[in-house]
Every structure is written in C-alpha cells, then in structure tokens.
Amino acid sequence: MRAQGQWQAWLRHHRAMCVDSLRRLVRQPVGSLLTMLAIAIALVLPSALWLSLDSAKLVDAELDASATLTAYLDKGVSESETGRILEALEAQSEVAATELITAEQGMAEFQQSLGLDDALARLDENPLPAAVVISPTTPSPEAMAALSERLSAMSGVAEVRLDLAWIERLRQLAELGRRLTLALGVLFGLGVLLVVGNTIRLAVENRRKEIEVVTLIGATHAFVRRPFLYSGAWYGLGGGLLAWGLLTLGSDWLAAPVASLAASYGAHYQLPTLGLVGSTTLLTCSTLLGWLGAWIAVSRHLAGIKPR
Fold first, then answer.
1. d(Cα 146, Cα 141) in Å, to the nearest integer?
2. Contact, 281 vs 180, CB < 8 A?
C-alpha cells in the first residue's frame, strides 16, 4: 500500500512538473520561440539530406533494375542457332530475363536514333549483329563480371559488353551522401544539445535560490532535475514541430519547379515527404535531444550548487 502511494505521488509530481514547465515556456513566448527556431534550423538540413537519401535509394533500385549485359552474337548466326543460344542463356541460374534484338531491329533503332534513314538504306547488307540483352538476378559488379566471363566463352557469342563504371560512380556518390548526412546529423545534433543546454543553464541560474531551498529540505537531484528535463523536452518537441513545418513548406514550394524540370527530361519525379514514420522519427529525435541537453546542463550545474 505504501509503495502504491509513493508511485502515485511520483506520477502526480511528473504531471505537475510537465504542466508547470510548459506554462513557464508559454509565459516567455519570444524567448521560447527563438530557442525552438534555433533547434528547428539545426534539424532541417540533416532531415532534408535524409529525405534526399531516401530518394537516392529509389534511384539505386532503378539502377539495379537497369543493370544489364549485352551479348553480341556471331555475324550470320541462323535462327535455330539463335534459339539455342537463348535457351542456354535462360538456363543460367544467374540470368533473370533475356531480350533478343535481331539485326533488323538493331538497324531500325539505329536509324531512328541517328536520323540517317536514307544513308543507311543504301548499305548492301546489315552490318549489325543480333544481340541479347541480359538482366542478371544479382546486379552486383562482382556477380555481373563473373557472368560476363562465362557468357563470353559460350559458342555463338562474339562479345559481351558490360559497363559498370557509371553504376559504381553513382553508388560511391550515394555512399558519400550517407556518410555526409550522418556527419551533419551528429554535428547539428550537438548543436541542439548546446542550444538547449545553454537555455537550461540560464533557467537553473534564475532559479538558483529556489533550488538551494528545496535542497535544504531534502530534495534529491532527481527531484530538482525533473522540471528542467521537461523544459528541455518541450524545447526539443517544439523545435521538431517547427522543423517539420519548414520541411513541409519547403517541399510544397519546390514541388512544382522540380516536377517541371523532370518533365522537361521526359521523367516523372516527386520530392520525397517525411510521411508518418519520418515525422515520428524527427519529433522523437528532437524531443530526446532536448531532454538530453537539459539533463547534461542540469547535472553539471547542480554539482556546483550548495545550500547555504
């Protein structure tokens, strides 16, 4: 029964400190808003880069889907021999799909892309060989290189073309972006800790006499820390909400120009949004950063406050 009463008293004090810390922030709207805005600005850049990386993951998936090999067949291969080669290719466990491009189809595409219909029509014979576009099951560079070597040794295959350099460059850029986002996230997270810590430090100094009095009557450090921890959490939550609003407004503001630019290249692209999971993650991280900054600041300054 006594333990239950202590538990209820602990919960009542938490509720009271939560409400009281919010009221103190509301009584100083300008200062509180400026602190939250500083937190929001520190959170916007890493959050925007995080969204860009999510978009880059979609591009990376498209790159995996477009990673193909092209096997050029020997000139003058008969239709029956071509069918045999296709069956042999499809029997490979590393091959997901194949597409045959006949010499006639290749010439038609070549004429259409270059606009040289009249000039190419004067050729006595089609100089282009038949080709097979192969989609591998595993689009990793190592697996595709090994598959290319095996296909080159097949009878009827003259050459296998594989260009992985551009895929590797793009993936290296994506990895650089991930590391840059992580570094900026840590850096700006430290900035949030400093902003909240400095604000809470001033609050501790303003309530120094009050802290000395409650310490004299036996208050523990956990009891004294509690209202400041809630203040830090409120600062972090407010900063997270402002950052969410800035990201949403920025996305809406840039959506039309980005869509127009993508349409000019014949593509369809939409700016990524935070969504439910992203919004929850942003608000949770900002609240925890505010709480942690307050905890560090209060713990550091409580050690120097001695009741007189």
1. 9
2. no
The span from the CA of 295 to the CA of 281, in Å, is 21
Low-confidence ranges of the chain (pLDDT < 70): 1-5, 54-67, 76, 103-128, 139-141, 163-167, 170, 219, 262, 265-270, 303-308
Q: Tally Cβ neighbours within 10 Å of residue 33.
A: 13
Q: CB neighbours of 204 closer than 8 A, spacing ≥ 6?
A: 211, 228, 297, 298, 301, 302, 305
The counts of H helices and E strands in the chain are 10, 4
Report the half-sphere exposure of 139 (CA within 13 A, side-chain side).
17
**Burial (0-12, 13-18, 19+ Cβ within 10 Å), 53:** middle
**Does residue 36 contact residue 235 with C-beta atoms inside 8 Å?**
yes
Predicted TM-score of the model (pTM): 0.65
Cα 70 versus chain centre, distance? 33
Q: What are the tens digits of pLDDT across the range 121-160?
A: 555 555 567 777 777 777 666 777 777 777 777 777 777 7
Please give the single-letter amino acid code of residue 38.
Answer: A
Burial of 13-30, coded b for 16+ CB within 10 Å and e otherwise, reads eeeebbeebbebbeeeee
> Contact, 129 vs 85, CB < 8 A?
no
Closest CA to 35 of 237, 249, 211, 224: 237
| 56-105 per-position pLDDT tens digit | 555 555 555 556 777 777 776 777 777 777 777 777 777 777 777 776 66
Q: Which helix (H) or strand (E) holds 204?
A: helix 165-206
Q: Which helix (H) or strand (E) holds 291?
A: helix 275-302
